[in-house]
Design brief:
Layout: H1 2-21, H2 26-36, H3 38-59, E1 64-79, E2 86-105, H4 109-175, H5 181-215, H6 243-253, H7 255-275, E3 281-293, E4 297-303, E5 309-314, E6 321-325, E7 327-332, H8 337-343, E8 346-354, H9 362-428, H10 434-468
Antiparallel strand pairs: 1-2, 2-3, 3-8, 4-7, 5-6
Length: 478
């Protein structure tokens, strides 16, 4: 038993350590977000909801069947259903029935409802696709921001290592009388400034990690971390296409246009549904009913021994009384329950035609409202196309500009690196002061950071263009 407990503890401890050591790749973050993000889940619920609407539309073609049964007890002065006489009694009555109805024609509204439900589900699926694209880009942006902050911290630490080495060399030069002590103070001030920047950079990493974890709906912020890798630039050949080619491709592939087109079709179906109210509706119906009672049944009718006859009139002229036999029913035990149901059942069936004549202009006004809805949907589609053109053009321009900025940053960092090396050589032999050396070092550090910023900015903007070009999220390369 002790060995089993020890083994269980070791397994649990191992799983906790592995969970804490796990580092997320960009692909894992995107996939996890697509499965767990709240906005994506809500969009998936919309798709499921539209599937239910489609099921409702299909159900309109199926007959409606309803059954009902009532079993009641009446106590007091009630009518005897057997004799028709009011009397004080307690009696049980049972009735049951089945009704069925089927719409044979309703102005084709059932068919239009089914078509509308199919379009609505398609529109929700397009909305889900767009939501996934947006979430994937948002996660990628947040992920690259974390990566930039981490690599920025590495740059700061590398520069700080250089500063530490420089402090040692400066101390030797000050002791040798080559440099004044003020240069040592300047380098130490640079060291303090770099340490402060590293603290801020570490804070920025934590903040960006928390932001990414919240996007993924992960609550364990403390142990959340990403894989530290350097992403290369892939797919820049897409910028060799004409921006107009990308715009046309986006109109064919992007969900924004498909959503607007589907909404226009929905508006047109609403007009057709409203116009269907002008036409007659034809319904078929069938009803079956039966009943049973706990009252005694009439088994015979005999003359009343106490009053065998009764006067029903008189002969005009002679005033001779006209008599008729007076009878009384002989009651017996009620029939068995199922025998009563069999004897007392009945059917009714037929067709019902409803012809709209005047309904206070409600149908006409509804048609007009839906026709206005079609115009609005057409304007939204036109606006969606204009917005897509503007967004693609902006994304294409941003990506090209980001690439040029990245190339310029590479040239700048190379120049600043050489300038820093030259400044270091001059400082080591006492030909420049610590302030000038620190300025050269800061410029080189800023150039390195700008390369990182420009690189990840270009990667993200390039992926935006790729999405507009119709490349699925799962096929984006980083």
């Amino acid at each position: 038993m002790k060995n089993f407990s020890l083994l269980a503890f070791l397994l649990l401890f191992s799983s906790l350590v592995n969970a804490q050591d796990k580092k997320w790749t960009l692909e894992e973050c995107v996939n996890y977000a697509l499965e767990n993000n709240i906005s994506v889940k809500q969009a998936e619920l919309d798709v499921e909801f539209s599937a239910i609407d489609k099921s409702d539309a299909i159900g309109n073609f199926i007959p409606s069947i309803n059954g009902q049964a009532t079993n009641s007890w009446n106590t007091g002065l009630t009518q005897n259903v057997t004799t028709g006489i009011l009397q004080n009694q307690t009696v049980r009555n049972f009735s049951a029935g089945v009704s069925a109805g089927l719409t044979l024609f309703d102005g084709l509204r059932n068919f239009k409802e089914l078509q509308r439900a199919r379009i609505s589900r398609l529109a929700n699926e397009y909305s889900l696709d767009k939501m996934k694209d947006d979430i994937a880009l948002f996660v990628a942006d947040a992920y690259l921001q974390v990566l930039f902050n981490k690599q920025n911290l590495e740059v700061l630490r590398a520069q700080n290592d250089v500063t530490k080495e420089q402090i040692e060399r400066t101390l030797d030069l000050v002791d040798a009388g080559v440099l004044p002590e003020g240069d040592l103070l300047e380098i130490r001030a640079t060291m303090a400034d770099e340490q402060q920047k590293m603290i801020l950079a570490e804070n920025q990493i934590q903040i960006s990690l928390i932001s990414l974890a919240q996007t993924l709906a992960i609550q364990d912020y403390q142990n959340f971390d990403i894989v530290e890798r350097d992403y290369d630039i892939f797919g820049n050949e897409i910028l060799e296409n004409s921006v107009y080619d990308i715009i046309e491709r986006a109109k064919e592939e992007r969900s924004e246009i498909k959503i607007a087109e589907a909404n226009k079709e929905l508006a047109e179906k609403d007009v057709e549904l409203a116009k269907g109210a002008y036409l007659p509706t034809l319904n078929a119906f069938f009803n079956y009913n039966t009943r049973a009672t706990g009252q005694d049944q009439v088994i015979d009718i005999i003359p009343d021994p106490d009053n065998p006859t009764r006067q029903i009139g008189f002969v005009e002229g002679t005033n001779q009384a006209v008599l008729a036999p007076n009878t009384i029913p002989v009651l017996g035990s009620p029939l068995p329950f199922f025998d009563q149901l069999s004897r007392n059942d009945g059917f009714s069936y037929g067709l019902q035609l409803n012809v709209p004549i005047l309904n206070g202009f409600a149908t006409r006004n509804q048609v007009k409202r839906n026709e206005i809805g079609v115009l609005r949907a057409e304007y939204r589609l036109e606006q969606a196309e204009l917005d897509l053109e503007a967004n693609v053009y902006q994304a294409f321009t941003d990506a090209k500009g980001a690439f040029k900025a990245y190339e310029a940053a590479l040239v700048a960092v190379e120049a600043q690196e050489k300038a820093f090396e030259y400044a270091t050589e001059r400082y080591d032999v006492g030909l420049t002061n610590a302030f000038d050396f620190s300025q050269a070092k800061v410029r080189f550090e800023n150039a390195q950071r700008e390369v990182l910023r420009a690189k990840y900015d270009y990667i993200f903007k390039l992926k935006v263009v790729e999405l507009y070009f119709g490349i699925p999220v799962g096929e984006l390369k980083f």
